[in-house]
Design brief:
The complex is a heterodimer of chains A (152) and B (425). Chain A has 152 residues and is mainly α. Chain A has a domain of 79 residues. Chain A is 80% helix and 0% strand. The N and C termini of chain A lie far apart (60 Å). Chain B is an alpha+beta fold. Chain B folds into 2 domains: 233 residues, no CATH class; 140 residues, Oxidoreductase, molybdopterin-binding domain (Sulfite Oxidase, Chain A, domain 2, Alpha-Beta Complex). Helix content of chain B is 38%, strand content 12%. Chain B has a 5-stranded mixed beta sheet with strand order 2-1-10-5-6. In chain B, strands 3, 4, 7, 8 and 9 form a 5-stranded antiparallel beta sheet that branches. In chain B, helix 2 crosses helix 3, helix 2 packs antiparallel against helix 6 and helix 3 crosses helix 4. The radius of gyration of chain B is 27 Å and the shape is elongated. The termini of chain B are far apart. Classes of the chains: A mainly alpha (152), B alpha+beta (425).
């Protein structure tokens, strides 16, 4: 028995639980895919599924890490900028159909209201984030800045 | 080694390209453990929502090809009346709250995406294939959910089957990932003290010791932020997502805090001034159909037609019941109307066969709905005529709408024209 296990380890590269759980995973996924086919949405589903990986790993990630790197090239209190900028960008990325009014037609049909106020709200939150961060920076400088402020 | 001698195809594929001094198994495991608690709650509440639609009743199933994925379906209860409000609110708001953690988790493991060679054993190859399902499934579920609650239907498929089957792909990959990685994560979590990390400022922040998983950078840059700073940043993102959206699940003054959430809007101070979902105009309801000529058709042992005046002359009941939408928002209002059970008796039925509700609404999946026997006979289930003491507004379903305790919003059919109490054959 242990000889068989060792053999599996040598040929497969991991233990039987590893193999079993991955097989279960692929069986469930394959069954889900048959449901997707029956629902008649295969092409769109697969495109969006693969697209989701590409969108995150090869578009969103390089974009935000490059933006962050650019921010660090300057001599300024980088965290007091990257935190509000990052949070503001997050809110925009999540709520862009409302903020940029992309969903205006459906939204008006459903709610009877316009998406117009959302841009101002996002801007307000963004300003509050930057203002709060700036205030924190000033307070830290004023109180001796023994923590993060001075170690650039 | 399968292809160990080949040169990596680009700079991304060299470990020293990844220079963040914070990446490491401990940090990844912290994000992982938060997701391990949160994602199952989002998943279970999502699967519960499917059951809440009572898809086994005629006309209710939007995913009739579900097959084995319907194994757990059960008759959706009418009590407690706030259950769907809670579960679906949690599903949507917790999902939004976990997004920054998911992004942080993906950031923390991104060097492994570019590991070279891609796999050194069959086990690794299979595992990486499952990670495609995991990452694809996670991003797919979050993206479709987030777009759907904003009514931004740009995806080339119906939301319901895509989000349901996408969930099963994601969950299958997630279970495999947890089974494989949990021992590693537990070891990594024990390798550092969270309390000590929370006391460690930037100047004392050092990389984690080199790890066999390739998360720790072999050429770390100087730290620009402490670990606790990064955790605070991610937590701040979650707090912002939560704080700006949770208001759409609440009534009262806190609802106004939903600055960035689709359905936390203020309509004014009147009795009908609460969240509308589907205006009458958008589904082709014209005033002529809802005026004095409107009749409600009851079908049971006999068929009869009632005017709104006839209905108002029947015994009226008032209950405070929530409308809770699959999109996560909810609101509780005081509804006045005739019990569905009374209407069933009126046309010679019992309600034990449930009821099939038809709307004036033209087309659309929710122009009709089946209610179960339990939903039909619950004394709080109403054909509502008034809300908060006033006649329903046209956008809230005038002349009459269904209000069933704990039912998903779309089953509280508006602009009702027919109630068919005959048992489905």
């Amino acid at each position: 028995m242990s000889g068989g296990l060792a053999d599996l380890h040598r040929r497969y590269g991991a233990g039987p639980l590893h193999l079993a759980i991955l097989l279960v995973c692929f069986i469930v996924a394959a069954y889900a895919l048959t449901r997707v086919i029956l629902a008649g949405i295969l092409v769109g589903f697969v495109l969006w599924f693969i697209g989701a990986v590409i969108l995150h790993d090869l578009v969103a990630f390089p974009l935000y890490s490059r933006a962050d790197a650019a921010l660090q090239r300057r001599r300024w209190p980088v965290n007091h900028l990257r935190v509000p900028a990052g949070l503001s960008a997050l809110l925009l990325v999540v709520w862009f159909p409302l903020v940029l009014r992309a969903a205006e037609h459906n939204y008006r049909e459903a709610t009877g209201l316009s998406t117009a106020p959302f841009f101002g709200r996002w801007l307000l939150v963004t300003l509050a984030l930057f203002a709060g961060s700036a205030l924190l920076y000033v307070l830290r400088r004023a109180t001796g800045a023994r923590r993060t402020g001075r170690k650039r | 080694m399968l292809r160990g001698e080949e040169r990596p195809p680009g700079p991304f594929f060299r470990p020293e390209f990844w220079r963040s001094p914070l990446r490491g198994p401990w940090l990844t495991s912290v994000f992982g453990i938060v997701l391990l608690v949160g994602i199952p709650i989002v998943a279970v509440t999502g699967l519960v929502s499917y059951a809440a639609y009572n898809p086994r009743l005629p006309g209710n199933d939007i995913t009739p090809e579900r097959g084995l994925f319907g194994f757990y379906l059960f008759d959706w209860p009418t009590s407690p009346i706030w259950l769907y409000r809670l579960t679906q609110g949690v599903h949507v708001i917790l999902g939004l709250t976990l997004l920054p953690v998911l992004l942080a988790k993906l950031w923390s493991v991104i060097p492994k995406l570019f590991a070279w060679p891609p796999a050194t054993s069959a086990a690794q190859m299979l595992e990486r294939a499952s990670l495609l399902l995991l990452v694809g499934g996670a991003v797919f579920q979050f993206v479709t959910g987030i777009l759907n609650i904003q009514l931004f239907y740009v995806f080339p498929f119906s939301f319901y089957p895509a989000h349901l089957y996408g969930a099963w792909v994601f969950l299958a990959a997630l279970v495999a990932h947890v089974v494989i990685k949990l021992p590693t994560a537990v070891t990594a979590l024990r390798s550092r003290s969270l309390r000590r990390e929370l006391r460690t400022p930037l100047r004392d922040t050092r990389p984690e010791p080199p790890d066999p998983h390739g998360l720790v950078s072999p050429a770390p840059a100087p730290a620009t932020v402490s670990r606790r700073g990064l955790l605070a940043f991610v937590g701040g993102g979650s707090l912002a997502m939560f704080g700006l959206s949770v208001g759409q699940t609440l009534d009262g003054p806190l609802r106004r805090t939903a600055l960035l959430a689709p359905h936390g809007r203020d309509y004014g101070p009147g009795p009908n001034d609460f969240q509308v979902n589907k205006t009458a105009a958008s589904v082709g309801i014209v005033p002529a159909e809802t005026g004095s000529g409107w009749r409600l058709t009851l079908v049971g042992a006999r068929r009869m037609q009632l005017s709104r005046e006839d209905l108002l002359a029947l015994p009226l009941r008032t209950y405070r019941l929530p409308i809770a939408c699959v999109e996560g928002w909810s609101t509780e209002q005081a509804w006045t109307g005739v019990r569905l059970a009374d209407l069933a008796r009126l046309c010679g039925a019992t309600g034990d066969g449930g009821v099939y509700v038809r709307s004036l609404q033209r087309g659309g999946v929710f122009s009709h709905a089946s209610l179960s026997a339990g939903q039909t006979t619950d004394p709080r289930s109403l054909l509502a005529l008034r809300v908060n003491g006033a006649d329903l507004s046209l956008d809230h379903g005038f002349p009459a709408r269904i209000m069933v305790p704990n039912a998903p919003g779309v089953h509280n059919t508006k602009w009702v024209r027919e109630l068919d109490f005959r048992p489905a054959s």
